[in-house]
Amino acid sequence: MTTERMVTTDALRVLFDPESVAVVGASGNPEKWGYWLASGALAGRHRRTVQLVNRRGGVLDGVPFLPGLASLPVAPEHIVVAVPPPQVRGVVAEGLSIGARCFTVITSGGAGFGTGGGAADAADPADSAADAERGLASLVTAHGARLLGPNCMGVVDTTSELRLSWGDFPSGQVGLVSQSGNLALEIGRLLARAGQGFSRFVSLGNQRDIDAADALDSLIAHDATRVIAAYVEDFRDGRRLARTLAAAHAANKPVLLLTVGRSEASGRAAASHTGALVSARAVVAAVCRDSGALLLDTAGELVDVALCLLAAGARPGSGGPVPGGGAARIAVVGDSGGQGALAADALSASGLEVPALSAATQAAVGAYLPPGGGCGNPVDLAGAGESDIGNYARIARSLLLAGEADATVLTGYFGDYATANPAQAARECDVARELAAAVRESGRTLVVHTMARDTPALAVLRQHGVPVYERIEQAATALAATDRLRRTGLPQPPSPLPIGTAPHRVPDGGYQTVRGLLCSYGMVFPAAEFVSTVEEAADAAHRTGYPLVLKAMGLAHKTEAGGVALGLDDEAALRRAFARMREATGADRYAVEAMARPPYAVELIAGVRRDPAFGPVAMVGIGGVTAELLADTVLAMAPLTPGRARELLLALRHAPLLTGWRGAPAAHLDAAAGALCALARAAVEHPELAELEVNPLLVHPGGAIALDAHGVLA
After folding, report:
1. Most buried among 185, 485, 629, 674, by the most CB within 10 A?
2. How far apart are CA 697 and CA 649, in angstroms?
């Protein structure tokens, strides 16, 4: 993991608002990257000094290309490098010698950079490239400068008129950090169609110095950024990033995160249940939940949610209080009963409430409806819009000002009148302005779903910050995500990991070893002895007492392999089970363990997996042999506090089984939470274990007892 460093706005000023920029590899050919970088830089030359470098000479927009950095009349603060790989290191070294403080390296192909240390001779080309890139970053940071990239698309700050990238980036209020350049262009186009755009864009590239957390930190402090979007594949120091996400939430800057869903679960499943149940994406989802960020699935969803957040004030908790802290209440106005009903269904399916309207509000709305118009929720216009297009604004205004709903959805035909009758364009635009005025007056959110596209009235709505969606499911998804953010409590950034670790290392992940380890942390197991022969098993059984359990050691999935025999009531049964088990498994070591059968017990699975980016991640779920089938699990970064462990238990879908289902006594949640804390602490303090698992953990009214445990060495 990378070393923690504090990033201030001033530390990255030269990235976003340098006093001088030089583009090395500038070109006059529009087919080349150097052209777009140079022309973008020149667009801000009234604000800063812009110098262009190409050893072959040339000119762009009246600015001559100079042969090298040494020939520049002004030493640049920020240098953009777009030259072939063998030239990159030399350009950077020359830039450092003249005092440059920031480098944006567009060039990919790090193995060609060279390090002066023989990295190019590495047997693996990927290792060679990584070594060369790390060497370049070390060279830059050793001089107190910063590096963006390499292999990035550049950087854009529309507020400082800095455009050092290929492509068009519309101005707006969304700050984007991305490891994919094309995805950034897609998001930009979607935002532009919706009347929005970027405050800043940072293409991370290979993150050899400036990483996602650095870029996100800069957006938290950036006044022009109201919503933060990020696409991250490589989380590097995930715990540091989690703290940054929590800081963004605390600063009222919503973070919308996209990531890939690559999972190693299938490869880990043979090692443990935990590995099968804790995918990479599940970890990211848990981090987002605890840090107050929203994990989304697509670029379109990200843009839809961003528009809704901007309309709602883009602030966690800004949607207004909902009685009892429940889901947001939505009022629906539809041109037809069908559209209104489908909208209500979509909103309800997304977890939102479509409540009945009070008699007073129904009367206010009904004053504008023809006979037969529906005054409930949804409101059925029943032709009221066709008879007078102004009724759209009057009815929406009544619902917004009534204060009975947190947001109002207008679904149907509005925005399309001018398409069929151009003479109505001016009036429809006037109504759009009236709708926007009602939003401002009420302080509530209005969302418009329409069958129209890109008409003058819709342009007016977008200009005034009213979100417009082509499909009702887009509106429902955006409102539901906004509501989730509104209901997010104080973020829970990860607890710090201990500086030291336990003095002894765990030699293996077998049951006997792991059981002893967890007992030392306070976890409770049944009485047991470990044996190799049937005679030793019979002797141990006399001391342990019947009924008992016989387990074969060295198996990750004992039950499936025939390595567990339960409820053995006497020595004869024990001997028969031992013979069958030895034949089925070939094991040479066995556990003879007292049978634990506490009444009203619930089987849980608890585990910790060491994630490459986020470190130890704790998991708890409904356990036993159906753990993977039910997949009812929750995750959090370890270590855990007792309160946090209890929250995880209550977050399970099957949590009612723990709190007293159908009159059964409640399980001992404090004992269960204590067992989770012990497991998490053991895993944190023993980094030699890649995974640590207890399955099942029996939780019952009298306490919690672990029946099996397993570890996987890193």
Report:
1. 485
2. 12
Domain 10-151 CATH assignment equals 3.40.50.300: no
> Packing angle between helix 511-520 and helix 669-685, nearest 10 degrees?
110
From CA 362, how far away is CA 405, in angstroms rounded? 13
What are the structure tokens assigned to 317, written together? Answer: 């908790």
DSSP assignments along 579-627, one per residue = HHHHHHH--S-EEEEEPP--TT-EEEEEEEEEETTTEEEEEEEE-GGGH
Write the DSSP symbol of residue 650: H
- In angstroms, the Cα distances linking 405 to 408, 625, 673 are 7, 46, 39
Q: Are strands 330-334 and 379-380 parallel, antiparallel or unpaired?
A: parallel
The CA distance from 614 to 562, in Å, is: 36
Say whether pLDDT at 361 is over 90: yes
161-194, pLDDT tens digit by residue?
999 998 889 999 999 999 999 999 999 999 999 9
Output the pLDDT for position 277: 53
pLDDT on residue 260: 84
pLDDT tens-digit map of 44-59: 999 999 999 999 999 9
- Whether 514 and 711 have beta carbons less than 8 Å apart is answered as yes
Q: What tokens were used for 560? A: 């499936």
Distance CA 88, CA 69 (A): 13
Return phi, psi of residue 76, to 5°: -80, 145
**Domain extents for the chain?**
10-151, 155-311, 323-486, 527-594, 602-713
- Neighbouring CB atoms inside 10 A of 634's CB total 19
Q: Is the pLDDT of residue 555 over 50?
A: yes
* Predicted local confidence at residue 497, as pLDDT: 81
Q: What integer pLDDT is reported at residue 558 of this predicted model? A: 74
Q: What is the mean pLDDT of the chain?
A: 90
Quickly name the fold that domain 155-311 has.
Rossmann fold (3.40.50)
CB contact at 8 A, 193 and 187: no
**CB-based contact 544:529 (threshold 8 Å):** yes
- CATH pick for 527-594 out of 3.30.1490.20, 1.10.10.10, 3.30.1360.20, 2.70.98.40: 3.30.1490.20
**Spatial distance between the Cα atoms of 136 and 490, rounded to a whole number of angstroms:** 40
Residues in the chain: 714
How many other C-beta atoms can be found within 10 angstroms of the C-beta atom of residue 612?
14
At residue 128, the pLDDT reads 87
Q: Is residue 581 within 8 Å of residue 554, measured between CB atoms?
A: no
* Beta strand extents in 17-73 (DSSP E only): 20-24, 49-53, 59-60, 63-66
Is the alpha carbon torsion for 450, 455, 456, 459 positive or negative?
positive
Q: How confident is the model at residue 109 (pLDDT cuts 50, 70, 90)?
A: confident
* Residue type present at position 542: H
Read off the pLDDT of residues 125-141 as tens digits, 9 standing for 90 and up.
Answer: 677 888 999 999 999 99
* Chain mean position to CA 458: 32
Q: What sections of 312-336 are H helices per DSSP?
A: none
Candidates 3.20.20.150, 2.60.40.420, 3.40.50.261, 3.40.50.1010; CATH matching 323-486: 3.40.50.261
What pLDDT sits at residue 270?
38
What's the number of CA atoms in the CB half-sphere (13 Å) around residue 666?
10
Would the CATH topology of 10-151 be identical to that of 527-594?
A: no
CA–CA separation, 148 and 146 (whole Å): 7
- 513 burial type by CB count under 10 A (0-12 exposed, 13-18 middle, 19+ buried): middle
Could you tell me the two tokens for 59? 């000119």
Q: Is the dihedral of CA 114, 115, 121, 125 positive or negative?
A: negative
579 in Cβ contact with 534 (< 8 Å): yes
Which of 226, 232, 247, 257 is closest to 291 using CA atoms? Answer: 247
AA identity, residue 415: G
